[in-house]
Amino acid sequence: MEIASGPSSRRHSGRLPHIHKVERPPKQNLLRDIQDSLKETFFSDEPLRPYKDQPGPRKFLLFLQHFFPILEWGRTYNLSKFKGDLIAGLTIASLCVPQDIAYAKLANLEPQYGLYSSFVPPLIYAFMGSSRDIAIGPVAVVSLLLGTLLQNEIPDSQANKLAYRRLAFTATFFAGITQFALGFFRLGFLIDFLSHAAIVGFMAGAAVTIALQQLKGLLGIKNFTKKTDIVSVMRSVWSAAHHGWNWQTMVIGLSFLAFLLFTKYIGKKNKKFFWVAAIAPLSSVVIATFFVGITHAEKQGVSIVRHIDRGINPSSFHEIHWTGEFLLKGLRIGVVAGMVALTEAVAIGRTFAAMKDYQLDGNKEMVALGSMNIVGSMTSCYVATGSFSRSAVNFMAGCKTAVSNIVMSCVVLLTLVLITPLFKYTPNAVLASIIIAAVVGLVDIGAVILLWKIDKFDFVACMGAFFGVIFKSVEIGLLIAVAISFAKILLQVTRPRTALLGKLPGTNVYRNVEQYSNATTVPGILIIRVDSAIYFSNSNYIKERILRWLGNEEEEAKKLNQSGIQFIVIEMSPVTDIDTSGIHSFEELHKTLQNRELQLVLANPAPIVIEKLYESKFVNLIGEDNIFLSVADAVTTLTPKTQEPA
Amino acid sequence: MEIASGPSSRRHSGRLPHIHKVERPPKQNLLRDIQDSLKETFFSDEPLRPYKDQPGPRKFLLFLQHFFPILEWGRTYNLSKFKGDLIAGLTIASLCVPQDIAYAKLANLEPQYGLYSSFVPPLIYAFMGSSRDIAIGPVAVVSLLLGTLLQNEIPDSQANKLAYRRLAFTATFFAGITQFALGFFRLGFLIDFLSHAAIVGFMAGAAVTIALQQLKGLLGIKNFTKKTDIVSVMRSVWSAAHHGWNWQTMVIGLSFLAFLLFTKYIGKKNKKFFWVAAIAPLSSVVIATFFVGITHAEKQGVSIVRHIDRGINPSSFHEIHWTGEFLLKGLRIGVVAGMVALTEAVAIGRTFAAMKDYQLDGNKEMVALGSMNIVGSMTSCYVATGSFSRSAVNFMAGCKTAVSNIVMSCVVLLTLVLITPLFKYTPNAVLASIIIAAVVGLVDIGAVILLWKIDKFDFVACMGAFFGVIFKSVEIGLLIAVAISFAKILLQVTRPRTALLGKLPGTNVYRNVEQYSNATTVPGILIIRVDSAIYFSNSNYIKERILRWLGNEEEEAKKLNQSGIQFIVIEMSPVTDIDTSGIHSFEELHKTLQNRELQLVLANPAPIVIEKLYESKFVNLIGEDNIFLSVADAVTTLTPKTQEPA
């Protein structure tokens, strides 16, 4: 309710209160105007602000700190923080080693490439990244996406190992370039175009697809489809049912799956026991490997890892395609994989930053992620990003800074140098069960229910992405997700809401009559609120919608034998901008109303709108007197005219 | 200014006024909800409204009238209306005959096809269309576009006349299908996505391109480039300068061009003489033809029309490609040409409808235009649509109904049957000068200046389309126009405006402090208005922008030694909708503010927003007490707390 003490007396004395006119904002020159709008688009976070009024050397230090945040937080680093980081780092290392080996298989790469990708990228990130909680490394969804896209180009990854790997590094390089460029050119806002709803659906679909792929390892099937859609996979599974399933493999796989899901459940039930879930995968690998090693179950058809290259990352600089058609293919795959990886990492970073209340600079973050993948592509790593599950464990284990990533990286280094031969007897079934247990968390039923409750359109987008992924492929799902996200934006700007306003009794506040049942319309005056910027995409609709409101109300008035409408007041508060098409429509509306002897009145136009209305001479057309500061103001001024006989 | 009489006393008595709570709108069931939103998207004009409460036979009549508006207005047609239509029809006929012959050349078709397209389509339109002023027939821009697109597929239109023509009819058929389908499925709003600014630029670019093409005919150049970009054309013209220009042709062309431009100027200067400009083209043709006929200037190298088939439209049903790859090519070309033709026709229709104050049903109009092109494609016509210049002449000549199109159609019929042989000696130079004089009007300098003044982004879109057309090709220009239009929409939803609000002295109205210089902020309370629906594309930006406002204000407060901010009031009036991402961001914002011991307060959320805030339990999170009906309400309630020591 808006109330005033002063002017109420003035109105009753018969004087029409016009203390405040709608002001035109101070005129800015063009250059300033363009500058401001560019700044708000690309530099909305004012990155140069800390540099202001600083001496030269200090500026250089700030500049270095901008790209290497470790220089900033490193100076206040102490032993107590290190304790937290050490424990968190060891915990996520125990989680990441088995996951790395498993995820590399999702990307159709040999297991050591997963480990490589958990060694170099986290190190780079620790120096350049600004998130304190994110855990870097290969993740399930990106591995699957990369594997699918690469396989489209090189169908037989086993027969063409080198060619496949080279394309993978090329794609990783361009994924890094994409991420770096988006951050460097401050285009980070582009990833906001993938809506939350679409991501939820895409992730769930990817999780189901990944889990289905694991049926191969879990059931010990030899001839498995290369396709990822649910129909092909289930057909593969059934056709192998009679002789293709290996019961020893199934026993191993299903029992460890049950164990992992159980520990996950315990960890979820009681947050104190999160470490049980965290070390379960490594324990499973150790137990299963030991078991297979002594029973030699591999001779019964249980498929095992067999071999992981020992030693740290070899250089892969010369394996990247710097020319030729594979450069372009790598570029295309890299852009897609890079964007998806970025979306995941930024979402994780933001979530944890909000939890601990620190600011995360999205563009800086992208530069860090891009750099780590560029370096990674030259050191035999494939696309790494922030992992949902490992970041959550990192957070719960009490990490303080990115040092936990360094600790994890060191453990992976030791693993690579010392113990890779021990993974020889690790059964693939246990890796499959680790993957399934990991991706279960990506299906967020709660979020889907919330989408359904809050926004049906979001729900449709979510389901579209989900079914696109499981029935077709990850790319199609992604495409559907992006398309639906865009459709939503377009629909929003094409069919904006309008509302009929009425006066709340005892106040001078005008509100939507559909929301406030006791709001009453003013006889002779039609008050309509337009709830959107008026642009070419909706200007015509808005014009016709206003005329439709008018038609309805005139019909209503005729039925009730009331006097007809004489004024149309457009409440412009929500109209944040108007373009030439919008002004055109207003001119047409004014002409139409004039023909019917109705007056168009505007209330509370925004600064930019009033400026444009003046520039286009529309103000002269309807008369400056017909623009009011508020609806209340307009109604008090207009009412007398309708009551007088004139 | 919003003022109240009643409650002001209540406030001073110390009671916090809470007469009106923010109400949740009455709950609608899901089906109803979806129905409403579908209805608003596709049936916003309530097409079924007139059918309500009507008896059966009347319903059928209304249904017929819906598709054939002539049944409605025909019943009140009388002689005085016919007089107007007759004069207007004869005037536009005199204008269209020479234009038809000239435009057919733009589309690389033989001259009679231009005349055919001015015979059948206007007849069909007269029965089905609802615009009273539009003049139907071939137009310059669509002819050029069609010519370019067809030539991309069949480069040598002279050597492959039949193949070229068949593809032209196929494209025309699909242009009609596209138009019909858009109207029938009520997707007409899709053409609104081509912004006014983009159309202005595209039209101007097309006009320049068309004029440049006419240099061939005007200068009598034999070897002319097939490309349409300005660089190729000018190179063609210069390289032909020494021996390729024909002076006799130039004399004819330039003198008639001067004559036509002069009459055009007279017609514009004094509206009474519009008919001078209208009959000038036909007079030019008659004079030039007569002159060439007696001097036999064609023997001096003056190129002439030579031959136009006599007789009415032959059937072309069997020339349309119903199968094969040309079907797909025709489909692609048809969709583009159909959309551009539609945009032009609908823009014309709307302009004149607003002038004479009648409603134009966009979807019905599209069905009419589509039908006429479908029938046209089977009767040797190429894509016809509404012509800007001829419709204006039609309007000024006093047309009353679509009967003027029937009159024009009859004149074209007589031309086809009787006098086509007389066009034998018509020099191409005079046709070129007619085209140039016609397209000059498409360059709307005034509109461009207005764009520059009102909206810089629109100006850039306009220039992009313009330069795209003249330096590259019509398709590229069109693509740029569409791309920039979309970019504008996306930018609008990614970077919405926010404003800091202050109180206008002597009122309880809160307005943007940048617009109203005397608005003052309230100490301890930060009031921010968010000027857009909060969607995934901007939710993160809005959150960060609010935190930035907070940072700035806290700095300011520290400098002035004021007490810090305790409340953040978000004025939600312009926030017309919120989605799950938006609620997410609000939750994060709330968490961040909570960490800093600040309270988040919302003012005046819209019905749909409050509903979603309840559904998502966000209301519970910040407390129902922190949602107010208006900013004024919030400030009066919150202020006491900040003053008390607690």
Helix content of chain A: 55-70%
How many domains is the backbone of chain A divided into? 2
Q: Kindly state the number of beta strands of chain A.
A: 8
**Approximate strand percentage of chain A:** under 5%
Q: Specify the oligomeric state.
A: homodimer
Structural class of chain A: mainly alpha
In round numbers, the mean pLDDT of chain A is 86
Overall radius of gyration of chain A: 32 Å
Write up this protein.
Chains A, B: One of its GO terms (molecular function) is secondary active sulfate transmembrane transporter activity. Chains A, B: It is a multi-pass membrane protein. Chains A, B: Belongs to the SLC26A/SulP transporter (TC 2.A.53) family. The structure is a homodimer of 646-residue chains. With 646 residues, chain A is mainly alpha-helical. Chain A has 2 domains: 163 residues, Transcription Regulator spoIIAA (2-Layer Sandwich), CATH 3.30.750.24; 412 residues, no CATH class. Chain A contains 27 helices and 8 strands. In chain A, the strands form 2 sheets. In chain A, strands 4-3-5-6-7-8 form a 6-stranded mixed sheet. In chain A, strands 1-2 form a two-stranded antiparallel sheet. The longest helix of chain A has 32 residues. Chain A is elongated, with a radius of gyration of 32 Å. At the A-B interface, helix 1, helix 2, helix 15, helix 20 and helix 21 of A face helix 1, helix 2, helix 15, helix 20 and helix 21 of B.
